[in-house]
Amino acid sequence: MDRLTEMEAFAMVVDQGGFTDAARKLGISKSAVSKHVSALESRLGARLLNRTTRRVSPTEIGLAYYDRARRVLNDAGEADALVTSMQSAPSGVLRISVATDFGVNLLSPVLGKFLQEYPDITVNMVLGNRYVELISEGFDMAVRIGELEDSSLRARKISETTQRMIGAPSYFQKYGHPQRIDDLNEHKLLHYSNQSAGSVWRITAPSGEKRQVRSAGWLTVNDGQSLLNAAIAGLGIAYLPSFLYSEAMRDGLIMDAIPDLPKEVHGIYAVYPPGRFTQPKVRAFIDFLVSQFAGKGPEDW
User: Fold this and answer.
1) How many whole angstroms separate alpha carbon 285 and alpha carbon 207?
2) Quick one: residue 121, left, alpha or beta (phi over 0 = left, psi -120 to 50 = alpha)?
3) pLDDT, mean of residues 151-164
4) I need a surface site. Which of 44, 97, 136, 255 has the fewest CB within 10 A?
5) Contact at 8 Å (CB) between 251 and 150?
């Protein structure tokens, strides 16, 4: 006889407090329920239920077995739901948190393609540079750049980007190139106000040493594209990811501030809540992002 069937019959008797209600709940006869429970007790060699003419209650052993049996039955139900879920077409509202610059410059242009591929999914994209609490704030997933702060979340790498200090040729003609990291203190810096470190740039020196540059900056703004525009206009040196500056660098509008510095490489990740299986709509979107940016190296934006 099937063990899960025996477990289910026993657990339902405990839940309902008797064989009659358990049978009604399971949609089988009372005698069938009794047969399943008796077979379970016989196989285990233990009495799991105290039976009287008025009531049925679990024995001490039965109560301990019930706790474990209920977990097994719940897991089995989740496994069935997983298979059903994975076979169903992705649908529903997908609420995602995306870093502003990545969302505006890279995700928005391709979002229409995803919606055409999955017409039953509705996307609610929230742009911002704050690390949202996915579960408590009702997000299905987020796209984040750089070191992941919350290790409890599941993550899948989408791509990589580099971060470099850049400025316009006209700026360097006027103020000269900084030769060393310390020289940045004498230059006009363009800061990103949403950085968690504030006006501090964390830079790797040619020796591999991690350095920090702290400056109030000549211009502070909470939008990367605006910083790039300011750099192109010759207003100062910005510290930006390659997906923002790469095109302008190819066009000769900007150049490296200190060319011999190691490039800072940061991962771009899709993060989502922990769990035993991923919702089809989330899995579909992550697979789409991975395929969309496949083959792009840190400097290929």
Assistant:
1) 40
2) beta
3) 89
4) 136
5) no
Q: Do residues 97 and 246 both lie within one domain?
A: no
Residue 60 lies in a domain: yes
Do 142 and 286 belong together in one domain? yes
Residue 205: which of 174, 180, 188 has the closest Cα? 180
CATH number for the domain including 233?
Answer: 3.40.190.290
Helical H runs in 136-268? Answer: 169-175, 224-232, 242-250
Residue 145: which of 185, 107, 88 has the closest Cα? 107
Per-residue pLDDT tens for 179-234? 989 899 889 999 887 655 556 788 888 888 888 887 767 888 888 899 999 999 99
Residue 259: C-alpha distances to residues 62, 190, 291 (Å): 73, 18, 32
Whether 116 and 196 map to the same domain: the answer is no
The answer to whether the predicted template modeling score (pTM) of the entire model surpasses 0.70 is no
Q: Quick count: other Cβ atoms within 10 Å of Cβ 267?
A: 16
285 domain residue, yes or no: yes
Closest CA to 208 of 261, 265, 256, 163: 261
Q: Which domain holds residue 43?
A: 3-87
Report how many domains make up the chain.
3
